């Protein structure tokens, strides 16, 4: 029994730092995406309509990732590792990363980013103003590969059934900092 407990404790000690590291990487990537896409947004003020909202859930990765892999040599090299992370049925949100990012830091960026919305809440806000200038920023769950030195993240903007756009971001960790290396498979409807 003691041997089982010792093995369990050892396994727990191995897994815990990995989950914290991934959460820190997710937070860093979220900050990069917010900084890029909220750059031109105005600070939220009373009675000012905010045009860009943030979707609460991490969107699942799907077969679109396979198209991106096919068009990029680096991704082809790590395709098996990437494909293992295509899980359609995830149910995760960005709340941990959002709270870490804005807990006593990044306050100017926070002044531009609304609290996250569900799709239903976004549609309600859009209908309230009746203009087709509202956008919902949807960020997929990051796919980490190459010993967590690269990440692939889909970023999409939902406006309505007809007007949407998106792209994949290929990020690389350089000297402990995530940077966007490439934009892949841009699309718009």
From TrEMBL:
It comes from the Bacteria. This is DUF3828 domain-containing protein. Keywords: Signal. Residues 1-21 form the signal peptide.
């Amino acid at each position: 029994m003691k041997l089982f407990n010792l093995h369990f404790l050892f396994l727990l000690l191995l897994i815990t730092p990995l989950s914290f590291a991934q959460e820190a990487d997710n937070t860093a990537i979220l900050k990069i995406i917010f900084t890029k896409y909220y750059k031109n947004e105005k600070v939220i003020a009373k009675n000012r309509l905010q045009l860009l909202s943030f979707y609460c859930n991490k969107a699942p990765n799907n077969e679109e990732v396979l198209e991106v892999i096919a068009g990029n040599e680096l991704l082809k090299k790590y395709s098996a590792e990437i494909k293992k992370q295509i899980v359609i049925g995830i149910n995760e949100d960005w709340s941990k990363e959002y709270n870490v990012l804005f807990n006593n830091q990044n306050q100017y960026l926070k002044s531009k980013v609304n609290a996250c919305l569900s799709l239903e809440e976004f549609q309600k806000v859009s209908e309230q103003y009746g203009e087709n200038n509202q956008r919902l920023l949807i960020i997929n769950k990051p796919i980490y590969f190459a010993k967590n030195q690269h990440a692939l993240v889909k970023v999409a903007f939902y406006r309505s059934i007809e007007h949407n756009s998106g792209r994949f971001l290929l990020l690389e960790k350089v000297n402990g900092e995530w940077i966007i290396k490439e934009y892949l498979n841009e699309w718009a409807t």
